[in-house]
Each structure stands twice: as C-alpha cells, then as structure tokens.
Amino acid sequence: MLLDRYEPYFFNSNFKEAASKAGWVAYRGELVLVEGEVADAQGRRKPPHELLRQAAVLAEGDELRFISGHMDELAHFSAFLEKYGPDLKPGAIAVIFVVNIDKPFTALVGDVPVVFVPLVQGMAWNELIDLVALEKSDFKGQSSADKVVTLYNALKGHTFKYPQSTVEEALKTTNNAKRETHGAV
C-alpha cells in the first residue's frame, strides 16, 4: 500500500485510515520534505527542516489519487518531487498552496497538472473546500477518510482556470512573503 510506504515521512499525523470504498486509504497531517539530521547512534532524527503542512493524501492501493498541502517556499517543491513525484501519474490530482507566490498557476509535472495557489494565511483544507464550493453539509456523517474522498471527487470534476507555467519560471517571480499566523497573545 502506498501510504504504508509514506509512513516514515508522516509527521504530526491527524489520521491514516481506510475509507469506506475498498482499497482506498486517506491521510491528513504533515509530510516530511527535508529530513532532519541523524541525532544519535540509534538513528533517531532531529525534527524535519521542511514540511508539507496541512497535507491531505488519498491512495487507492499503490496508486496516488490526490495530494495537497501547504509549503512556505516554492523552492521546496523540488524536495516534494524527490519523495512524492514518482507517484504523480496521470489521473492524480495535486494542489499545492505556497506562501511566496503572487498568483496561482498550473504546471505540468510529467503528465500530471499540479495546481499552485498562493496562501499566506488560512488552512489548506478550508481553501480546497472553497475552491470546489463544497459545504459543511457535504461532509455530514462521513468518516475522516471519506471526507477526503468527497473532496477528491469534487476536485475530479473541477477545472482550474489558472495560467500554465513551469515551476522554473515561477521561481523567478517569488516574493518574500511569510506565513501569517494569528492566535493568543
């Protein structure tokens, strides 16, 4: 199973569970992009240097169907491709939220269109739901994994009308934006 292979890269996991559709498994949490150094003789690692935060992943057996999350810099996409790129095959949906881009765009990675959307504040999951106009009631009574399947099904029928670019071209236009967080003072 694909998500079993990803498990060493799970960080701050919310859940990994089977959906009601046989063979489908979903994960939400964070995914390691750049691992921390080995800290001791037992092989334990320091915290990761870079993460795909607020990640949502859906797999059908060994096939990646959907992956999404939030990264601070577009430059970290190369680390994403190293670990997860080989599983981006035709039919997969990838939506990546990035802090330091100004405008959304779509880039082909192999034969898979990857959607990049600017996000300085907010939650990737909520932004995805807004992009495909789902309502809270669309998820009522569903398990956590089935909610990811519902979002995936909505994304399958959604056309992103963002300009086509390459990641290399977009890297030339990144900005210095930092993630905005709000909370208790």
From TrEMBL:
Taxonomic superkingdom: Bacteria
Protein's name according to its UniProt entry: Uncharacterized protein
Species the sequence originates in: Zoogloea oryzae
